[in-house]
Write a structure and sequence with these properties.
13 helices; alpha/beta; 3-stranded antiparallel beta sheet
Length: 398
Protein backbone atom coordinates (compact mmCIF):
# COMPACT_ATOMS: atom_id res chain seq x y z
CA UNK A 1 0.00 0.00 0.00
CA UNK A 2 1.31 3.43 -0.99
CA UNK A 3 -0.04 5.98 1.53
CA UNK A 4 -0.69 9.59 0.53
CA UNK A 5 2.21 10.69 2.77
CA UNK A 6 4.92 9.10 4.87
CA UNK A 7 8.08 9.96 6.80
CA UNK A 8 11.52 9.25 5.34
CA UNK A 9 13.87 7.92 8.05
CA UNK A 10 17.36 6.50 7.47
CA UNK A 11 20.29 5.23 9.55
CA UNK A 12 21.64 8.76 10.09
CA UNK A 13 18.35 9.77 11.70
CA UNK A 14 18.35 6.71 13.92
CA UNK A 15 21.96 7.34 14.95
CA UNK A 16 21.13 10.96 15.84
CA UNK A 17 18.25 9.86 18.06
CA UNK A 18 20.36 7.17 19.74
CA UNK A 19 23.09 9.74 20.45
CA UNK A 20 20.50 11.99 22.09
CA UNK A 21 19.19 9.10 24.16
CA UNK A 22 22.72 8.41 25.39
CA UNK A 23 23.40 12.06 26.21
CA UNK A 24 22.84 13.86 29.51
CA UNK A 25 19.75 15.67 28.21
CA UNK A 26 16.56 14.13 26.91
CA UNK A 27 14.78 17.48 27.13
CA UNK A 28 15.61 21.15 27.89
CA UNK A 29 19.11 20.54 26.53
CA UNK A 30 21.47 21.74 23.79
CA UNK A 31 19.85 19.92 20.85
CA UNK A 32 16.84 22.23 21.06
CA UNK A 33 18.80 25.46 20.79
CA UNK A 34 20.98 24.01 18.03
CA UNK A 35 17.91 22.95 16.05
CA UNK A 36 16.34 26.38 16.46
CA UNK A 37 19.48 28.13 15.24
CA UNK A 38 19.86 25.82 12.24
CA UNK A 39 16.22 26.12 11.27
CA UNK A 40 16.26 29.92 11.56
CA UNK A 41 19.31 29.99 9.31
CA UNK A 42 17.61 27.71 6.80
CA UNK A 43 14.59 29.98 6.31
CA UNK A 44 16.41 33.27 6.86
CA UNK A 45 14.68 34.35 10.06
CA UNK A 46 16.34 35.97 13.08
CA UNK A 47 14.59 33.87 15.74
CA UNK A 48 13.08 30.38 16.01
CA UNK A 49 11.17 28.81 18.90
CA UNK A 50 10.63 25.04 18.69
CA UNK A 51 7.56 23.53 20.34
CA UNK A 52 5.72 20.23 20.75
CA UNK A 53 3.54 20.60 17.65
CA UNK A 54 2.44 23.14 15.07
CA UNK A 55 -0.90 23.77 16.77
CA UNK A 56 1.07 25.00 19.79
CA UNK A 57 3.16 27.20 17.46
CA UNK A 58 -0.01 28.77 16.02
CA UNK A 59 -1.44 29.29 19.50
CA UNK A 60 1.76 31.03 20.60
CA UNK A 61 1.74 33.16 17.45
CA UNK A 62 -1.76 34.38 18.30
CA UNK A 63 -0.77 35.05 21.91
CA UNK A 64 2.42 37.00 21.17
CA UNK A 65 0.53 39.07 18.56
CA UNK A 66 -1.78 40.11 21.43
CA UNK A 67 -4.91 38.78 19.75
CA UNK A 68 -7.74 38.18 22.19
CA UNK A 69 -11.42 38.43 23.03
CA UNK A 70 -13.35 40.55 20.56
CA UNK A 71 -10.73 40.36 17.83
CA UNK A 72 -11.36 38.72 14.46
CA UNK A 73 -8.82 36.45 12.75
CA UNK A 74 -9.27 35.65 9.07
CA UNK A 75 -7.80 32.52 7.55
CA UNK A 76 -8.34 30.11 4.67
CA UNK A 77 -11.19 27.58 4.87
CA UNK A 78 -8.99 25.10 2.97
CA UNK A 79 -6.72 24.09 5.83
CA UNK A 80 -6.45 21.88 8.87
CA UNK A 81 -8.51 22.86 11.92
CA UNK A 82 -5.55 24.36 13.82
CA UNK A 83 -5.25 27.37 11.50
CA UNK A 84 -8.62 28.58 12.76
CA UNK A 85 -8.82 26.91 16.18
CA UNK A 86 -5.85 28.91 17.44
CA UNK A 87 -7.98 32.07 17.29
CA UNK A 88 -10.81 30.41 19.19
CA UNK A 89 -8.33 29.31 21.89
CA UNK A 90 -7.92 32.96 22.97
CA UNK A 91 -11.57 33.98 22.60
CA UNK A 92 -11.11 35.67 19.24
CA UNK A 93 -13.48 35.09 16.30
CA UNK A 94 -12.10 32.76 13.64
CA UNK A 95 -13.37 33.90 10.24
CA UNK A 96 -12.74 32.86 6.66
CA UNK A 97 -12.19 34.43 3.27
CA UNK A 98 -12.48 32.36 0.12
CA UNK A 99 -9.61 30.72 -1.75
CA UNK A 100 -8.06 31.38 -5.14
CA UNK A 101 -9.51 28.65 -7.40
CA UNK A 102 -6.14 28.16 -9.10
CA UNK A 103 -3.87 27.68 -6.07
CA UNK A 104 -6.44 26.72 -3.39
CA UNK A 105 -4.84 29.35 -1.12
CA UNK A 106 -6.36 32.34 0.66
CA UNK A 107 -7.35 34.89 -1.99
CA UNK A 108 -6.18 38.47 -1.37
CA UNK A 109 -9.16 39.87 -3.31
CA UNK A 110 -11.63 37.89 -1.20
CA UNK A 111 -9.74 38.96 1.92
CA UNK A 112 -10.15 42.62 1.03
CA UNK A 113 -13.78 42.25 0.00
CA UNK A 114 -14.69 40.51 3.25
CA UNK A 115 -12.63 42.67 5.60
CA UNK A 116 -14.25 43.68 8.87
CA UNK A 117 -13.01 46.45 11.13
CA UNK A 118 -12.51 44.19 14.14
CA UNK A 119 -9.96 42.04 12.26
CA UNK A 120 -6.71 41.90 14.23
CA UNK A 121 -4.78 39.21 12.32
CA UNK A 122 -4.67 37.22 9.09
CA UNK A 123 -3.39 33.62 8.97
CA UNK A 124 -2.28 32.80 5.42
CA UNK A 125 -1.79 29.08 4.75
CA UNK A 126 0.73 27.69 2.25
CA UNK A 127 -1.56 24.91 1.06
CA UNK A 128 0.22 21.82 -0.31
CA UNK A 129 3.50 23.72 -0.02
CA UNK A 130 2.68 26.57 -2.38
CA UNK A 131 2.85 30.01 -0.80
CA UNK A 132 -0.21 32.24 -1.15
CA UNK A 133 0.26 35.72 -2.58
CA UNK A 134 1.98 36.98 0.57
CA UNK A 135 2.91 40.46 -0.74
CA UNK A 136 -0.71 41.19 -1.66
CA UNK A 137 -2.14 39.60 1.49
CA UNK A 138 0.27 41.68 3.58
CA UNK A 139 -0.72 44.85 1.69
CA UNK A 140 -4.38 44.27 2.53
CA UNK A 141 -3.77 43.31 6.17
CA UNK A 142 -1.23 46.00 6.98
CA UNK A 143 -3.33 48.73 5.38
CA UNK A 144 -5.77 47.97 8.21
CA UNK A 145 -3.08 47.62 10.89
CA UNK A 146 -3.47 43.83 11.17
CA UNK A 147 -0.81 41.23 12.00
CA UNK A 148 0.18 38.73 9.29
CA UNK A 149 0.79 35.16 10.46
CA UNK A 150 2.04 32.73 7.84
CA UNK A 151 0.99 29.13 8.34
CA UNK A 152 3.87 27.45 6.54
CA UNK A 153 3.15 23.97 7.92
CA UNK A 154 2.93 22.53 4.40
CA UNK A 155 5.84 24.52 3.04
CA UNK A 156 8.93 23.73 5.13
CA UNK A 157 12.03 24.52 3.10
CA UNK A 158 10.02 25.95 0.23
CA UNK A 159 9.72 29.45 -1.13
CA UNK A 160 8.43 31.67 -3.92
CA UNK A 161 9.46 34.34 -6.40
CA UNK A 162 8.32 37.96 -6.27
CA UNK A 163 9.55 40.59 -8.71
CA UNK A 164 12.24 38.17 -9.94
CA UNK A 165 13.63 37.72 -6.42
CA UNK A 166 13.49 34.45 -4.48
CA UNK A 167 12.20 34.26 -0.91
CA UNK A 168 11.88 31.44 1.61
CA UNK A 169 8.63 30.75 3.43
CA UNK A 170 9.36 32.19 6.87
CA UNK A 171 12.14 34.44 5.57
CA UNK A 172 10.46 37.33 3.77
CA UNK A 173 9.11 40.76 4.81
CA UNK A 174 5.39 40.02 4.32
CA UNK A 175 4.81 37.94 7.45
CA UNK A 176 5.30 38.97 11.07
CA UNK A 177 5.40 35.34 12.29
CA UNK A 178 5.58 32.00 10.46
CA UNK A 179 4.81 28.56 11.84
CA UNK A 180 5.90 25.13 10.58
CA UNK A 181 4.94 21.51 11.28
CA UNK A 182 7.17 18.46 11.65
CA UNK A 183 4.41 15.84 11.69
CA UNK A 184 5.54 12.59 9.99
CA UNK A 185 3.64 13.25 6.74
CA UNK A 186 5.16 16.71 6.34
CA UNK A 187 8.27 17.62 4.35
CA UNK A 188 10.55 16.73 7.27
CA UNK A 189 9.77 15.33 10.70
CA UNK A 190 10.68 15.36 14.38
CA UNK A 191 8.00 12.73 15.08
CA UNK A 192 5.66 15.38 16.39
CA UNK A 193 6.77 18.98 16.64
CA UNK A 194 6.49 22.49 15.34
CA UNK A 195 8.35 25.78 15.27
CA UNK A 196 7.65 29.50 15.20
CA UNK A 197 10.01 31.88 13.38
CA UNK A 198 10.06 35.67 13.41
CA UNK A 199 12.36 38.66 13.06
CA UNK A 200 10.65 40.31 16.04
CA UNK A 201 12.78 39.78 19.16
CA UNK A 202 9.89 40.59 21.51
CA UNK A 203 7.62 38.03 19.87
CA UNK A 204 10.34 35.39 20.12
CA UNK A 205 11.08 36.14 23.77
CA UNK A 206 7.42 35.98 24.73
CA UNK A 207 6.94 32.73 22.79
CA UNK A 208 9.86 31.18 24.69
CA UNK A 209 8.39 32.31 27.99
CA UNK A 210 4.91 30.95 27.22
CA UNK A 211 6.35 27.69 25.88
CA UNK A 212 7.63 26.80 29.36
CA UNK A 213 4.74 27.60 31.75
CA UNK A 214 5.56 31.34 31.66
CA UNK A 215 8.40 30.49 34.03
CA UNK A 216 11.83 32.14 34.33
CA UNK A 217 14.83 30.53 36.05
CA UNK A 218 17.49 33.08 35.10
CA UNK A 219 18.49 34.64 38.45
CA UNK A 220 19.56 37.85 36.74
CA UNK A 221 15.98 38.33 35.51
CA UNK A 222 14.09 37.29 38.62
CA UNK A 223 12.26 39.97 40.54
CA UNK A 224 12.44 38.09 43.84
CA UNK A 225 8.68 37.35 43.92
CA UNK A 226 8.17 40.61 45.78
CA UNK A 227 8.96 39.16 49.21
CA UNK A 228 11.50 40.71 51.62
CA UNK A 229 10.86 38.23 54.40
CA UNK A 230 9.20 34.93 55.06
CA UNK A 231 9.61 31.69 53.07
CA UNK A 232 10.29 33.49 49.76
CA UNK A 233 12.92 35.88 51.07
CA UNK A 234 15.86 33.56 50.53
CA UNK A 235 17.18 33.67 46.94
CA UNK A 236 19.13 30.72 45.56
CA UNK A 237 19.82 28.63 42.50
CA UNK A 238 16.56 26.74 42.89
CA UNK A 239 14.45 29.88 42.41
CA UNK A 240 12.02 30.26 39.54
CA UNK A 241 9.33 32.79 38.82
CA UNK A 242 6.08 32.48 36.87
CA UNK A 243 5.68 35.76 35.03
CA UNK A 244 2.88 34.77 32.63
CA UNK A 245 0.20 32.08 32.49
CA UNK A 246 2.06 29.80 30.12
CA UNK A 247 1.83 26.29 28.75
CA UNK A 248 3.85 23.11 28.58
CA UNK A 249 4.63 23.37 24.86
CA UNK A 250 8.21 22.15 25.10
CA UNK A 251 9.85 19.91 22.54
CA UNK A 252 12.50 17.31 23.50
CA UNK A 253 16.17 16.95 22.65
CA UNK A 254 15.33 13.54 21.18
CA UNK A 255 12.97 15.15 18.68
CA UNK A 256 15.35 17.98 17.87
CA UNK A 257 18.22 15.56 17.28
CA UNK A 258 16.01 13.89 14.67
CA UNK A 259 15.07 17.32 13.32
CA UNK A 260 18.70 18.36 12.88
CA UNK A 261 19.42 15.15 10.98
CA UNK A 262 16.34 15.68 8.80
CA UNK A 263 17.34 19.28 8.09
CA UNK A 264 20.52 18.08 6.43
CA UNK A 265 18.45 15.97 4.03
CA UNK A 266 15.67 18.49 3.45
CA UNK A 267 17.05 19.76 0.10
CA UNK A 268 17.12 16.21 -1.28
CA UNK A 269 13.62 15.55 0.09
CA UNK A 270 12.29 18.61 -1.71
CA UNK A 271 14.12 17.74 -4.93
CA UNK A 272 12.57 14.28 -4.95
CA UNK A 273 9.10 15.67 -4.24
CA UNK A 274 9.47 18.08 -7.16
CA UNK A 275 10.55 15.23 -9.43
CA UNK A 276 7.49 13.18 -8.53
CA UNK A 277 5.15 16.14 -9.01
CA UNK A 278 6.68 16.86 -12.43
CA UNK A 279 6.20 13.24 -13.51
CA UNK A 280 2.61 13.20 -12.24
CA UNK A 281 1.83 16.43 -14.09
CA UNK A 282 3.34 15.08 -17.28
CA UNK A 283 1.27 11.91 -17.09
CA UNK A 284 -2.03 13.33 -15.87
CA UNK A 285 -2.31 16.44 -18.04
CA UNK A 286 -4.03 14.44 -20.78
CA UNK A 287 -6.81 13.17 -18.50
CA UNK A 288 -9.85 15.40 -19.18
CA UNK A 289 -11.49 14.55 -15.85
CA UNK A 290 -8.44 15.35 -13.67
CA UNK A 291 -7.01 18.79 -12.90
CA UNK A 292 -3.34 18.85 -11.85
CA UNK A 293 -2.16 21.39 -9.24
CA UNK A 294 -1.56 24.83 -10.73
CA UNK A 295 0.96 27.45 -9.63
CA UNK A 296 0.40 31.15 -9.01
CA UNK A 297 3.70 32.24 -10.58
CA UNK A 298 5.52 29.92 -12.96
CA UNK A 299 8.92 31.13 -11.73
CA UNK A 300 7.99 29.87 -8.25
CA UNK A 301 7.46 26.28 -9.40
CA UNK A 302 11.05 25.22 -8.71
CA UNK A 303 10.83 26.70 -5.18
CA UNK A 304 7.72 24.81 -4.00
CA UNK A 305 8.40 22.01 -1.53
CA UNK A 306 5.15 20.12 -2.38
CA UNK A 307 3.88 18.55 0.81
CA UNK A 308 0.76 17.33 -1.03
CA UNK A 309 -0.17 16.35 -4.54
CA UNK A 310 -3.82 17.39 -4.50
CA UNK A 311 -5.80 17.07 -7.70
CA UNK A 312 -9.38 17.81 -8.63
CA UNK A 313 -11.35 14.96 -10.17
CA UNK A 314 -14.66 15.30 -11.97
CA UNK A 315 -16.30 12.36 -10.25
CA UNK A 316 -19.55 12.95 -12.11
CA UNK A 317 -17.73 12.59 -15.44
CA UNK A 318 -16.16 9.36 -14.16
CA UNK A 319 -19.57 8.08 -13.20
CA UNK A 320 -18.29 7.21 -9.72
CA UNK A 321 -18.45 8.78 -6.31
CA UNK A 322 -15.29 9.87 -4.54
CA UNK A 323 -15.78 7.08 -2.01
CA UNK A 324 -15.96 4.56 -4.84
CA UNK A 325 -12.83 5.97 -6.49
CA UNK A 326 -10.88 5.89 -3.23
CA UNK A 327 -11.96 2.30 -2.57
CA UNK A 328 -11.02 1.26 -6.11
CA UNK A 329 -7.58 2.83 -5.81
CA UNK A 330 -7.01 1.37 -2.37
CA UNK A 331 -7.90 -2.11 -3.59
CA UNK A 332 -5.01 -1.75 -6.04
CA UNK A 333 -2.54 -0.47 -3.45
CA UNK A 334 -2.87 3.30 -3.87
CA UNK A 335 -3.84 5.23 -0.74
CA UNK A 336 -5.49 8.65 -1.04
CA UNK A 337 -6.85 11.32 1.27
CA UNK A 338 -9.23 14.28 1.12
CA UNK A 339 -7.58 17.51 2.29
CA UNK A 340 -9.53 19.41 3.50
CA UNK A 341 -13.16 19.64 4.54
CA UNK A 342 -13.78 23.44 4.59
CA UNK A 343 -13.32 24.47 8.21
CA UNK A 344 -16.29 26.84 8.25
CA UNK A 345 -18.59 23.87 7.54
CA UNK A 346 -17.45 21.89 10.58
CA UNK A 347 -20.35 21.45 13.05
CA UNK A 348 -18.68 23.44 15.84
CA UNK A 349 -18.03 26.43 13.56
CA UNK A 350 -21.54 26.37 12.15
CA UNK A 351 -23.13 26.12 15.58
CA UNK A 352 -20.83 28.67 17.26
CA UNK A 353 -20.54 31.34 14.56
CA UNK A 354 -23.46 30.61 12.25
CA UNK A 355 -21.36 29.91 9.17
CA UNK A 356 -23.29 28.28 6.33
CA UNK A 357 -22.80 26.62 2.97
CA UNK A 358 -22.06 29.31 0.40
CA UNK A 359 -19.79 31.42 2.60
CA UNK A 360 -16.70 30.33 0.64
CA UNK A 361 -17.95 28.92 -2.68
CA UNK A 362 -14.51 28.36 -4.23
CA UNK A 363 -13.33 26.34 -1.23
CA UNK A 364 -16.57 24.36 -1.22
CA UNK A 365 -16.27 23.62 -4.96
CA UNK A 366 -12.65 22.57 -4.54
CA UNK A 367 -13.52 20.25 -1.67
CA UNK A 368 -16.20 18.51 -3.76
CA UNK A 369 -13.55 17.32 -6.24
CA UNK A 370 -10.39 17.17 -4.10
CA UNK A 371 -8.22 14.09 -3.75
CA UNK A 372 -4.58 13.81 -2.64
CA UNK A 373 -2.41 11.13 -4.25
CA UNK A 374 0.75 9.50 -2.80
CA UNK A 375 3.74 11.84 -2.50
CA UNK A 376 6.82 11.25 -0.34
CA UNK A 377 10.57 11.02 -1.00
CA UNK A 378 10.89 7.27 -0.51
CA UNK A 379 8.63 6.56 -3.49
CA UNK A 380 10.58 4.73 -6.17
CA UNK A 381 10.18 5.32 -9.89
CA UNK A 382 8.16 2.09 -9.98
CA UNK A 383 5.90 3.37 -7.19
CA UNK A 384 5.23 6.58 -9.12
CA UNK A 385 4.47 4.71 -12.34
CA UNK A 386 2.15 2.40 -10.42
CA UNK A 387 0.12 5.38 -9.18
CA UNK A 388 0.02 6.86 -12.68
CA UNK A 389 -1.11 3.61 -14.26
CA UNK A 390 -3.83 2.89 -11.72
CA UNK A 391 -5.20 6.44 -11.63
CA UNK A 392 -5.16 6.65 -15.43
CA UNK A 393 -7.09 3.40 -15.62
CA UNK A 394 -10.09 5.09 -14.05
CA UNK A 395 -12.40 5.62 -17.01
CA UNK A 396 -14.85 8.42 -17.58
CA UNK A 397 -18.41 7.47 -18.53
CA UNK A 398 -19.01 7.22 -22.25
Amino acid sequence: MLPYGKQTIDDDDIAAVVAALKSDFLTCGPEIEAFEQEFAALVGAKHAVAVCNATAALHLAILVADVGVGDRVITSPNTFLSSANCAAFVGAIPDFADINPTTYNLCAVALEQNWQEDTKAVIAVAYAGQSPDMPEIARVARSHGAIVIEDGCHGTGGGFVHNAQSYKIGGHPWADITTFSFHPVKTMTTGEGGILVTDNAEYAAKARLLRGHGMVRDLDRLKGLGADEGPLAEQGPWMYEMQELGYNYRITDIQCALGRSQLRKLPSFIERRQEIVARYNEAFVALPWLQCPQVLIEASRSHISWHLYSVQIDFEALGKSRTEVMAELRAQGVGTQVLYIPVHLQPWYRETYGYEVGKCPNAEAYYAQALSLPLYPKMTAADVEKVISIVSSLRASE
